[in-house]
Amino acid sequence: MPNRKRNDVPGVALHITQRGNNRQVIFQDTEDYQRFAGLLIKYSDKYDISVHAWMFMPNHIHLLATPAERKKTGRMMMCITGAYTSYYNRKYQRTGTLYEKRYHSSLVDDDEYAITAYRYIELNPVKARLVSHPRKWHWSSYRHNAEGLQSSFLIPHFSFLRLEDTLPRCRKVYRQLVNETDVHGAAYAAIRKQIRHAQRRQSAFGSEAFRERMEAKLGYKFAKNDPDKS
């Protein structure tokens, strides 16, 4: 199957995922996580991409990020994954690809959809039963977004800043939303299905009106986003 078209739109958030080939581990120790984090900081700055949330799992990563220009997201990801693969192969004396195909991404609507994407990303290790609460997973933006831990590069999405009238109150509301989320419940399973389907289709996670606006901007139709048939 041919690769789907890239769907980046300036000023619109993207949910980005990149997996290890055959779901293999891509982070084996602290140095690996730190190296990838450093590359993300370097190349998101170089290509003027605002990162709102991030999660590094043992065999994949998630980002919520907004590009300022078209085609810059692909360049950022190419630089990060290329540099990291070279580092990883040297360190572990291996050759060949590290990642499964190219990264996946979906456009993310504002407000409830953006906040849902925040939660989905930062609750990933809880859903995987690696920790009981997202604050216990070190390689995540949760403590920055929810608890105010200082970050050198994280930029809140404007939907996050609309949760309340001050940033500390926004964080409090977000903490409550996270704490109220049952990641093993049926309601959350339905949300996960929608998000993952949008990712596979390289399409949009949002309202029908948002989807239509994005199709108009990009000049093509997305594949039908029917999670019940995925």
Mean pLDDT: 93
Order of helices and strands: EHEEHEHHHHHHEH
E-strand count: 5
Q: How many alpha or pi helices?
A: 9
List the strand order in the largest sheet.
2-3-1-4-5
What is the beta-strand fraction?
5-15%
General shape: globular
Low-confidence sequence ranges? none
Based on CA atoms alone, the radius of gyration comes out at 17 Å
**Biggest sheet descriptor:** 5 strands, mixed
Give the assembly state of these chains: single chain
Distance between the termini: 16 Å
Structural class: alpha+beta
Determine the fraction of residues in helical runs and give it as a percent range.
Answer: 40-55%
Question: Can you give me a brief rundown of this structure?
Answer:
The protein is 45% helix and 13% strand. The protein is α+β, with helices and mostly antiparallel strands and 230 residues long.
Structure in words:
It is built from 9 helices and 5 strands, in the order E-H-E-E-H-E-H-H-H-H-H-H-E-H. The protein is an alpha+beta fold and 230 residues long. The protein is globular and about 50 Å long. Strands 2-3-1-4-5 form a 5-stranded mixed β-sheet, with helices on both faces. It is 45% helix and 13% strand.
List keywords for this structure.
alpha+beta; 230 residues; five-stranded mixed β-sheet; 13% strand; 5 strands
What's the helix and strand layout?
Layout lengths: L12 E7 L10 H17 L2 E9 L2 E8 L4 H21 L11 E5 L3 H11 L1 H4 L14 H6 L10 H4 L5 H13 L6 H16 L2 E2 L2 H11 L12
Parallel strand pairs: 4-5
Antiparallel strand pairs: 1-3, 1-4, 2-3
